[in-house]
Amino acid sequence: MIFDRVKPLDAILATAEKKSLHRSLGAFQLTMLGIGAIIGTGIFVLTAEAAQKAGPGMMLSFVIAGFVCAVAALCYSELASMVPVSGSAYTYTYAVMGEMLAWMVGWALVLEYAVAAGAVSVGWSGYFVGLLDSVLGIELPLALTAGPSAGGIVNLPAMIIALLVTGLLVLGTTESARVNAILVLIKVAALTLFVILAVPVMQMENFEPFAPLGFAGISAAAASIFFAYVGFDAVSTAAEETQNPQRNMPIGLIGSLAICTVFYMLVAAGVIGSVGAQPLLTPEGIGIAPGSGEMTAACNAIANNTVVCSKEALAWTMREIGWEKVGDLIGLAAGLALPSVILMMMYGQTRIFFVMSRDGLLPEKLSTVHPKFKTPHIITIITGVFVAMFAAFFPVGALADISNSGTLFAFAMVSIAVMVLRRTDPNRVRPFRTPAVNIVAPISILGCLYLFFSLSGYTLLLFVGWAALGLLVYFAYSRGASHVGKGHVEVHEDDADAPPTSVPPIN
C-alpha cells in the first residue's frame, strides 16, 4: 500500500516536453541566483534565537546547516533537471515512491510554506515594532506584539501583515523580477553595512566560552538556522535553463552556499564580538527555551539588555555600538524586504495545494479560480487565515523550527527518491546527475535526520501530530478521491513553465 499508485514519470515528463526552456544560465548567474534566494529572512530574524541556543558556537551551526543544504541540493538538482514541472518534492515523490508518500511530502510542505510565512510575519513584526520605537518613539504594548508564550496576548502587527499579503495574492498582485532584484540588493547592502561596522569593533573575550551549552546547543542552533538557507533549491529548479548543467549546477549550488555561509559567519561574528551573545541560563545552568514565558521574564529582569532578548537582533546590535541611524536603516531594510518573502511563501503554498487539488487528493473546489482576479482565491484565503493565526500566537523560533521539520522531511524523501530512481530507471535522461550519488544521497539523508532530531521535543511532537492528521485525511478522503487511483492520469501543458514551487527566491 505504501508504494502503490505511482504516477507515471512519462506522463509527468510529457508535461515538461510540451515547452522547452532556453539554456542561458552559466555558473556565475546560478551563483548570483542562489545568493539572492538564500540571504535574508533567517539571518535577520533568527540570530538571537541561535545565540540563545549555542552562544558564540552558532558560527559552527551555520557551517553545519550549510553543509547539509549542499548535499541535499545536489540530490534535489537531479530530480529538478529531470522533472522541471510544478509540484516540487511532492511531484518527484509521486513519480518514484507512490501516492501515499507523495501525500505525506505535500502535507509536510504545508509546514515549509505556511508555517514559514508565519515565522517571517513574526520576524517582520519585531523589526516594525523596533523601528516605531526608535524613529517615532511609539512603544506598542507587549500584549499586542507577542503571543501568549512570550508574555503577550496576540502579535497584532504580524497578523495584519499576513492578512494584507493574503489580500494582495487574491487580487493577483505578484512582485516582478525587477522589484525582487531591488529587494535582494537592499537585503545584501544592509547586511554588508552591518559587517563593515560591527567586525572592526569585535572583542575576542566575547567569544568565551565558545560553546556554553555544549555541542547539543550547537546542533539545536543548526537545526533552527537551517531556516536561513531555505531558498537554495531555487538554483535546482533552474536546471533546465542552465548551460552545461553537469558542470555549472554544482558550481552554482556549492558556490552560493559557500558565499552565504561565509557571509552569515561574518554577521554572526559581528554580533558576538561587538555585543556578546551568551545565552541566558537557569540557576541550574540550563539554557532557557527561546520564546518561552521564562525567557520573557529573564529578559525583563535584565531590561532586555542582551542580543538574545532582541526581536530585531541586527538593528539592536547597531544601536548598541553607537550606530543608531544605521540600526534604523537595517530595520527599515527588513521592513521593506520581508513582506515580499511572506508573499512568495504563501504563493508557493497555494501552488502546492493547487497541484494536489488537481490530482484529486484535495477537494477540487479548492482550485477554483476567481472569475475576475483569475487567482485560486479559496485556497489563498484559507492559507492566509492559517498563516495569520500562526503569526498571531506563536513565537518566531517555534514557527521556524516547525517549518524546518517539514522541509527536512521533504528533502530526505527527495534524496531517497534519487537513489531509488537510479535503480528502477537507470537509462532515463538526466541533464544533471548527482555526483557520487551512493555517497552524497546517504549523507544528505543522514544530515537531514541529524538536524531533524536536533529540533526540540515540542517541535517533533507537533510534526508527529501533523503527520498523523495527514494520514487520517489521506485514508478518510484523499485515497478514495485520487485521480491516479481511479485510473485518470492527466498531462497539463501549462506546467512546463510554471513558477518553481520548491522554494522560490524568497529568503
UniProtKB/TrEMBL annotation:
Keywords: Membrane, Transmembrane, Transmembrane helix. The chain crosses the membrane at residues 27-48, 60-80, 100-120, 153-172, 179-201, 213-232, 253-275, 329-348, 378-400, 406-424, 436-453, 459-477. It comes from the Bacteria. It comes from Sphingorhabdus pulchriflava. GO terms for cellular component: membrane. The keyword Phosphoprotein does not apply. It is found in: Membrane. The keyword Metal-binding does not apply. GO terms for molecular function: amino acid transmembrane transporter activity. It is a multi-pass membrane protein. This is Amino acid permease.
